[in-house]
Each structure stands twice: as structure tokens, then as C-alpha cells.
Amino acid sequence: MSSVYQINKGVNKPIEFRGLYGQYIAYLAVGLVVLLLTFVALYISNVPLYVILPTILALGSGLFFCVFRLSKRFGVHGLLKWTAKRGLPKYIRFSSRRVFTALKYHRGTGL
């Protein structure tokens, strides 16, 4: 007898939601929670509603614009790679591979 198995084709695919990939979904969610808490804090502190709403709407649209721009510019893992590269000290960075390709193996010295 032959058995029929389902193949899950999306195992290694990154999470995607409306064009946002991976960690950008979390960035957007955290930003929206911060906007909600900001709205609540301003409302409780008796700031007029006609001041709060345009401020929150402007900050929210800026948040959406920035997160979608980062997602489109860097892709799934690009932002993490970019921040890791920026975090390296200057004396570890190499602009070319010539340092490594110019090394020669010497038989007698063991180098």
C-alpha cells in the first residue's frame, strides 16, 4: 500500500504580512502599542482632543511609512546585517579581500 503525505512547502519561508517581512511586523506592532499608550496618556492628562488626534495620526502615518520603507530597503535580514556591520570597530573592517588573498603559505616556517 502506498501512503499519501502532505508536503509543507512553506517551512523555511519568512513570515510575511502585506509586504512586511519578519521583524518589521514586530516593529510595527510595538510602534502601534506605543502610539496607543501615548494617546491614552495625553487623553488622561486633559490635552484637547483636536490636538491629540492630528498628532497621533501624523506619528502613526510616519511609523507606517518608515517601517514599510525599511522593509523594502533591507528585506528580511538586511537590517540586522546592516546594524551588525555598523557595530564593528574600524580596525576590524576590511574594504577588500586583498589582505587575505595576498598571504602565501611558506613550507619551512609553517605559516
TrEMBL record:
Top-level division of the source organism's lineage: Bacteria
Keyword annotations from UniProtKB, A to Z: Membrane, Transmembrane, Transmembrane helix
Family matches, as Pfam families: DUF4133
InterPro entries: DUF4133
Record field: transmembrane: 21-44, 50-71
Name listed for the protein in its UniProt record: DUF4133 domain-containing protein
Lineage: Bacteria, Pseudomonadati, Bacteroidota, Sphingobacteriia, Sphingobacteriales
